[in-house]
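Hi R.,

Here's the input for the adenosine-5'-triphosphate complex you asked about:
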Amino acid sequence: MPAKSMDELVSLCKRRGFIFQSNEIYGGLKGFYDYGPLGVELKNNLKQAWWKAMVYVRDDVEGLDSCTIGSQKMFKYSGHTETFNDPLVECKDCQARMRADHMKDIGICENCGSTNVTEPRQFNMMFKTNIGPVADEANAGYLRPETAQHIFANFKNVIDTTAAKLPFGIAQIGRAYRNEIVARNFIFRVREFEQMELEFFVKPGEDEKWHEYWLEERLKWWEEQGVARDKFEIEDLAKEDLAHYSKRTLDLNYKYPHGYDEVEGIASRSDYDLGSHTKEQDKLNLTAKVKENTDSNTRLAVQDIETKEWVVPFVIEPSMGLDRGLLAVMNEAYTVEDLGEGKERIVLKFKPHLAPIKAAVIPLAKNKEVLVNKAKEIKQQLQALGLGRVLFENSGNVGKAYRKHDEVGTPLCITVDFETVEDDDKVTVRNRDTMEQERVAVSELSAYVQKFYMGL
Ligand code: ATP
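And here is the predicted structure with adenosine-5'-triphosphate in place:
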């Protein structure tokens, strides 16, 4: 049962240390969020799940970690300087700024209802900066609005160093920046975020087949993260809604508390990007309409071994927003359970591999040294398994600790009591979902936890 409202999620995130408004001590910066102690763990786990599925289990994908600032030339040829725009409407009465394509009626201010509004004008969403000490046009650069462009720019480097053959992909996780006209819905629409993008290069003519393939792969991946496929509406974007590079885009729209909205786009970018950034465009039979490139020093193409012909690969791009993904996973996991007698509990039922804390080790009393020492010892023993964060939880109130760990989604709570140290050397292991408790010998605890997480 997902959360009923965004407010419930926002409140839990703040209360338990998942996500904070950025620059809060100076009144907050709109569209910027910082991830706290639990948020960073959840985010890393989601990244790892993506990287494993998109890189490690495959033999046809390589990874990349590029810079986040790009040159003017990069974004001129990618088309972003000219076309990465949203239509902006301003209210002359209350000064509110709105995105025309998000308004119900572009003649009426969403904030104050005035009809004294401007015509929509194109607003470029890239953050501009200066490279080096001189702040002039010649030294301008941009914070990247997507991770993709540096992947295209490194296409030849990756091929030359890995001997990759079509079809193959390059994956990257990293920051992207967009100066959104209106940042809203918590971490859904922000100005600094992370993307997880795969650029998968295929032979021209095979793009449609691979587009279907990646849609299916991505839906399977989402299922493994706890978001069933029936939670998505798959939107085949209308021609007029396509980005400047796209031949066809399938959006995965997840049902957020604010309504169905895009968490991932799977775009077929044709030969537009490699074609735009390549030299010798006229020798390469490009299908996409690209700007003439007089600056690139590299031919971004592969040679067919049999025909000796140069081919500019087509690209299929599954592009997911990590922040939006995290919000979806969190919303899916959010559960309010009726415990009877007017009692209820909030549980984040994360898939175990995503849980920010893998196990909490709790001494029954916080001021009893034997219990505390034993709990610390067990924490270190479990930490060494390399499954993720194990927490020594010294609050002195087991009931409260269970409630807290339900709320942050810790799958296992391990309690050390007097029997543990005086009698049987066993601990109580409590399962988050079933709330069942069992006694497990400390000597068998590592194997127990490993089995729980890895099915070993
Ligand atoms: P939207 O239409 O919602 O503005 P988009 O179609 O421009 O998104 P893409 O360019 O396809 O988004 O970017 C790929 C992914 O990056 C999106 O599916 C989304 O998850 C994420 N993303 C894009 N813009 C933002 C943002 N402002 N905040 C958080 N994530 C974003």
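One thing worth noting: Residues 187 and 323 are 6 Å apart (CA to CA).

Cheers,
M.
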